[in-house]
From TrEMBL:
Broad EC category: hydrolase
Protein name stated in the entry: Aminopeptidase N
InterPro entries, alphabetized: Aminopeptidase_N-like_N, Aminopeptidase_N-like_N_sf, PepN_Ig-like_sf, Peptidase_M1, Peptidase_M1_dom, Peptidase_M1_pepN, Peptidase_M1_pepN_C, Peptidase_M1_pepN_C_sf
Catalyzed chemical reaction(s): Release of an N-terminal amino acid, Xaa-|-Yaa- from a peptide, amide or arylamide. Xaa is preferably Ala, but may be most amino acids including Pro (slow action). When a terminal hydrophobic residue is followed by a prolyl residue, the two may be released as an intact Xaa-Pro dipeptide
Cofactor(s) in the UniProt record: Zn(2+)
Keyword Methyltransferase set for record: no
């Protein structure tokens, strides 16, 4: 059934305290709860309904007297007094058979929890909604060496430990961990002098992979004090690494739980990209302590209140720790790859959705990444100082609250005096706006005019779109290349709007949407000469990169649609950027890449063309070869000069150099010279170089031996083996991809119950554009087979992977028919989960 934002009502009772006792057992864990309720003065409905799923109710009392609740699959209802009372219950649960990885479950013999969004109801009966907040006292009884929960530690002894969390929190922030774990300890002194004990807890054998995460945690704690004035608020902060986890990580109060792939890092086993990602996720979860935990969400429709803001904050952190332009470019690549297709397809939904069936299906790129873009636009519009002043007011006014987007907007209106009601459309309107720009040049009077228009195509459930507030950062360059008008921001608020510059000597070249100041599609009258000019002269690093990307896109489109040769303008521009020593290596590394095959399919579809995955793949490979030819004389030096010297460091400088050197290695391989890749594979002392060398060998069809050697070297390391699974599938030739995937699902190390391994295998197939969309339909059928198998075990991961099909209407009738048949086959599966049912129904439309 569907839940609507407009139906929100507060719960009939408030909670004064929660006491929980866990008697741990793999199949018969007992959970005792003692909860002090009193009538909520803000509510009229006194129905006493407690959520509860898959629980065996042993006993229930109110004020000590046994009661007999009426119990359904979703919870229980019982007559409760219209006065304060104590609820006590005992339930039994079975963590070891919990394959959905929601609630209390077991991973490699260790107990752990995942309660966001609605997992706590699988632990005990409770009003499992974020606006019900309480302090928790927890007692854990178990034989494991380490017993952890939220807050500060209390009494502990042989076989038990007690924890109490003084901060009121919703149940989704509850966590418990029990296992024979080892800690990597450290400490942090807050700016007011409190010493905080820090720990990263891991399984024995992983203790050498904690140092980087710990440093990232300390950097995050310092950064949030320096930039947002936010201090940590408990005596201890624990992080635990867990192998079986549906998502990246979880911000439980004082006890963050991480997918081990998002916290464990070492030079030998992690790539530079892994290090950067781990640093960002540690920061993200830590920053939730204020944006999410101290101020939480009234209901799940408000998810972007904490997620959009926290993604924005972690992006700010990464830009400060590393390179601002490189981070911005990486984020825009990801936004276009994941959020744009979502926003323009059958799963399109507003940043703040207004209805859902299963909230787990709304942890999306739109809520997270577009949600963060919305915060970025707000900051651009009000300015740096006003933004931080508004945030201070937000923390002051709403600390301890379960808040809404209305509260958030109100804070900005009150602190800046601006009317933000039109801006609020970014939260309610789905779809990616298109901004078209036409130029007018009055040579006689030296007047240059930009005519803007904005529109958004209809999306499911929203036929009519109103104009939004769109901040456009722009500058002007003189024809000689000098910037005459530095960046300033204009605000589009109407469907059509013009902007005039006068007193100009010559027709300027505008540089529009600098820094990607709004998540829109920009349509401008621009040819390749203009793009080459911006690539050479723009002062905005984002737009320089964008101009290079546009040239690459244009040449690829011509190669695909007209069998054209790669454009010399693009290749010459590329050569100039790659040899420009004033640019940092990471930036040059980014410039060498061209748009992915998936992105090209989207571009073609935007143009009204039907993308042909095979042609796209061939063109992409051909452009790679053309780049190699163009740069052939400089590649050996590019490779040699960018070998970082000294000890390996996963910082911006070291990873930038490795990235550029690896790009050179890859291009030399394209020219037939595999010597560098072979040597690098054999001698690398870090995963970045070893893995890239392996990838190049596999791509060139020379990888069989290296693939075997890599497996033998790393077979004991499950995170590295995920990479090994993924690589073989990602780089399989289109006609082999399904076969290679199928064979790997038969490998003894394949384990469908482990979400990382499942994603590394079936997710990699979905990511191999030409392979997944091979005209045989074998890719579609194989993915559908496995989704049907996984759904009864793990609905959340199954539903998420259904997004592989969301772009199906882009393709030709033959492929559409093949996909539709698979979608219908999944939908017809008996007992399909609510999660998967909702996703497939929406995708089918
Ligand atoms: N709040 C977590 C984060 O963004 C994500 C948890 C999502 N869990 C889920 N079951 N949908 O950091
Ligand atoms: Zn988050």
């Amino acid at each position: 059934q569907t839940i609507y934002l407009k139906d929100y009502t507060p719960f009939g009772y408030v909670i004064d305290s929660v006491q929980l006792t866990f008697k741990l057992h793999p199949t018969e864990t007992r959970v005792l709860s003692k909860i002090a309720f009193r009538p909520n003065p803000e509510a009229t409905d006194r129905t006493f309904f407690l959520h509860g799923e898959e629980l065996k109710l042993i006993s229930a009392t109110i004020d000590g007297k046994e009661v007999s609740p009426s119990v359904t699959d979703e919870g229980l209802t019982v007559d409760a007094p219209d006065a304060p009372f104590t609820w006590e219950a005992e339930v039994e649960i079975s963590p070891s058979t919990n394959t959905a990885l929601e609630g209390l479950y077991m991973s490699n013999g260790m107990y752990c929890t995942q309660c966001e969004a609605e997992g706590f109801r699988k632990i005990t009966y409770y009003p499992d909604r974020p606006d019900v907040m309480a302090t928790f006292d927890v007692r854990i009884e178990g034989s494991e060496k380490v017993l952890l929960s939220n807050g500060n530690p209390g009494a502990s002894g042989e076989g038990f430990a007690e924890w109490s969390d003084p901060w009121k929190k919703p149940a989704y922030l509850f966590a418990l961990v029990a296992g024979d774990l080892i800690n990597h300890p450290d400490s942090f002194t807050t700016r007011t002098g409190t010493d905080v004990e820090l720990n990263i807890w891991v399984r024995p054998g992983d203790e050498d992979k904690c140092a980087f995460g710990m440093q990232a945690l300390k950097d995050s704690m310092k950064w949030d004090e320096d930039v947002y004035g936010r201090e940590y608020d408990l005596d201890i902060f624990n992080i635990v690494a867990v192998d079986d986890f549906n998502m990246g990580a979880m911000e439980n109060k004082g006890l963050n739980i991480f997918n081990s792939s998002c916290v464990l890092a070492s030079q030998a086993t992690s790539t530079d990209a892994d290090f950067e990602r781990i640093e960002a996720i540690i920061a993200h979860e830590y920053f939730h302590n204020w944006t999410g935990n101290r101020i939480t969400c009234r209901d799940w429709f408000q998810l972007c209140l904490k997620e959009g803001l926290t993604v924005f904050r972690d992006a700010q952190f990464t830009s400060d720790m590393r390179s601002e332009p490189v981070k911005r470019i990486d984020d825009v690549i990801a936004l276009r790859a994941r959020q744009f297709p979502e926003d323009q397809g059958p799963l399109s939904h507003p940043v703040r959705p207004e209805e859902f069936q299963e909230i787990n299906n709304f942890y999306t790129a739109t809520v997270y990444e577009k949600g963060a873009e919305v915060i970025g636009m707000l900051k651009t519009l009000v300015g740096h100082d006003a933004y931080y002043k508004a945030l201070d007011l937000y923390f002051e006014r709403h600390d301890g609250d379960a808040a809404t987007i209305e509260d958030w907007i109100q804070v900005f209106e009150d602190s800046t005096g601006r009317d933000l009601q039109q801006f609020k459309r970014w939260y309610s309107q789905s779809g990616t706006p298109k901004v078209s720009v036409k130029e007018e040049w009055d040579a006689e009077n030296g007047i240059f005019t930009l005519h803007f228009s904005q529109s958004t195509a209809p999306t499911p459930g929203q036929d009519i779109k109103d104009p939004r507030v769109i901040p456009i950062a722009l500058g002007l360059l003189a024809p000689g290349g000098k910037e005459t008008h530095p960046t300033h921001v204009i605000e589009l608020t109407h469907a059509e709007q013009s902007l005039t510059f006068d007193g100009l000597d010559a027709r300027p070249v505008p540089s529009l949407l600098r820094g990607f100041s709004a998540p829109v599609i920009l349509e401008q009258e621009i040819d390749n000469d203009r793009r080459a000019f911006l690539l050479a002269n723009d002062t905005d690093p984002f737009n320089r990169w964008e101009a290079g990307g546009d040239l690459a896109r244009d040449t690829l489109i011509n190669m695909i649609l007209k069998d054209a040769a790669p454009s010399p303008a693009y290749l010459h521009g590329l050569r100039r950027v790659v040899t420009d020593e004033s640019l940092d290596p990471a930036y040059r590394g980014l410039m060498i890449q061209h748009p992915s095959e998936t992105e090209l399919a989207g571009t073609l579809s935007d143009m009204g063309e039907i993308p042909d995955p095979t042609k796209i793949h061939i063109a992409s490979r051909a452009l790679l070869a053309a780049k190699a030819e163009t740069l052939s004389d400089i590649l050996p030096a590019l490779y040699a000069d960018n070998q970082p010297t000294g000890a390996y460091k996963p910082d911006a400088e070291g990873s930038g150099k490795r990235d550029l050197a690896n790009a050179a290695m890859s291009l030399m391989a394209k020219l037939g010279d595999l010597s560098h890749a072979k040597a690098q594979f054999a001698s690398a002392d870090n995963m970045t170089q070893q893995f890239e060398a392996l990838a190049v060998l596999v791509r060139e069809g020379q990888g069989a031996e290296a693939v075997k050697a890599f497996y033998d070297q790393w077979k004991e390391d499950r995170l590295v083996i995920n990479k090994w699974f993924g690589l073989q599938i990602s780089l399989a030739e289109p006609e082999d991809a399904a076969k290679v995937t199928e064979a790997l699902t038969q490998h003894p190390d394949f384990d469908m119950k482990n979400p990382n391994r499942f994603r590394a295998t079936l997710g990699a197939l979905a990511g191999n554009h030409a392979g997944f969309h091979h005209e045989s339909g074998a890719g579609y059928a194989l993915l559908a087979d496995w989704l049907i198998k996984l759904d009864p075990l793990n609905p959340q991961t199954t539903a998420r992977m259904c997004t592989a099909f969301q772009t199906w209407k882009r393709y030709d009738a033959g492929r559409q028919a093949l996909i539709k048949a698979q979608l219908e086959r999944i939908l017809a599966t008996p007992n399909l989960s609510r999660d998967t049912n909702e996703m497939i129904s929406r995708i089918l439309g």
